Amino acid sequence: MQRESEGNGDKELKPLSRREFMRRMSQATASAGLATAGLAGIGVLTLHQKAEAAELVADRVGKLERMKLGTRMGAMEVSRVLISTDWNRDLYAPALALGANFVHKAGYWKSMPAEFQGLPRDSYYTDLTVDSTPNNPDNEDQAYQQVVTALDRTGLKYFDIFRAHFGWHSVDAFKNQTGTYKAFQRLKREGKVKYFGVSQHSHPENYPAYPEIIQAEIDSGIIDSMQVWMSATTTPDVIEVFAKAHKAGIGMTAMKTVAHGLGKVRGDADIRQQMGAPDMPGRACVRYSLSATSPISGKGPIFHCCVLSLFNLENFEENVGAATVKTAAMDGFIHNV
Question: How distant, in Å, are the alpha carbons of 198, 222, 328, 335, 336 from that of 300?
Fold first, then answer.
């Protein structure tokens, strides 16, 4: 017996035999979706079988598009869907096969995953979410130590983006709580991070002046990368300030696009049809965010990439497939990248 990989719990599973694996692969090749062939149980595959399954996913879905991540981070081009450390770890290989080249929250890795061992460090990008921001005042030493510890634990030489987690609760907090940014400046001088970003959350009870906070971050000139809540439920005034951030050259990443938008998209056949995914609400959610345009200028897309929570090959194929040329063509979706 073998234990499921990290992220799948402690359940003991029997390894899939070569004969059974080939049978399921044959079914997957002939079927409309990988999960219908039983490959959602990928956690029981050998490393070689996982590589073969990843190739099958890549062949079916096609390569991920890439976009330049704003203008403040040089020529950094990232896949439109990011790998996240809270994914089922067995989805890393399919994502890399599709061309994913950015890891969100890499600072939470307990060690360097096998899939990344041997990859040139400059072949992929990373960020880490630094958890000191909500403190009052935010703690410079706490932020510094989190980054240094994460580098030691993972073996990474540096993180591309130091991302202030949760963001600030008000415009005054952003302007006055400077510990997190001081930690970034110190780490950048030491070559441990490159760019400063924020993961700006927007719970109404904690962030009552959300568009104003985003505008203050834009006006400050210190934010290179911004990760924000963007879904089918996001209001036009908030989308417009996101468009202003994009225009200012900030690299824009959408988050919560499925988590917050799925209910509305499931109940709105028009959105699903417009997104070329009448029977795939997750795919429609992703396309909705990635194709969003300014409510005023009509120009876009606003977002360069998005981060998703993925747990199995079924929602991987549905959601990651939203951002590939091949599936767009198959779905008849006209995108504006």
Answer: 21, 23, 18, 10, 7
Confirm if 304 and 247 have CB atoms less than 8 A apart. no
Domain 63-331: CATH architecture, name and number where available = Alpha-Beta Barrel (3.20)
Tens-place pLDDT, residues 302-329: 999 999 999 888 889 899 999 999 999 9
Tell me, what's the pLDDT at 164? 95
Q: State the average pLDDT over residues 149-167.
A: 96
- Bridge partner residues of 83 (DSSP): 103
Are the C-beta atoms of 163 and 127 separated by less than 8 Å?
A: yes
Task: Detail the DSSP E strand segments found in the chain.
Answer: 2-3, 12-13, 66-68, 77-79, 81-84, 102-104, 125-130, 159-164, 193-200, 225-229, 251-255, 305-307
User: What rounded mean pLDDT belongs to the chain?
Assistant: 87
Query: In 3D, which of 223, 219, 218 has the Cα closest to residue 196?
Result: 223
Query: Within 13 Å, how many C-alpha atoms sit on residue 207's CB side?
Result: 19
CA distance 274 to 71: 30
pLDDT score of 332 more than 90:
yes
User: pTM of this prediction?
Assistant: 0.87
Q: Rounded distance, CA 301 to CA 67, Å?
A: 10
Domain boundaries, the chain: 63-331
C-alpha span between 145 and 246 (Å, rounded): 31
Q: Flag the least confident range among 10-24, 59-73, 204-218, 265-279.
A: 10-24
pLDDT at residue 73 above 70? Answer: yes
The string of DSSP codes covering 190-228 is: TTSEEEEEEEE---TTT-TTHHHHHHHHHHHS--SEEEE
Q: Measure the CA–CA gap between 51 and 281, rounded to whole angstroms.
A: 28
Task: Give mean pLDDT, residues 105-129.
Answer: 95
The string of DSSP codes covering 26-73 is: HHHHHSS-GGGGTGGGGGGS-HHHHHHHHHHHHHHH-PBPEEE--SSS
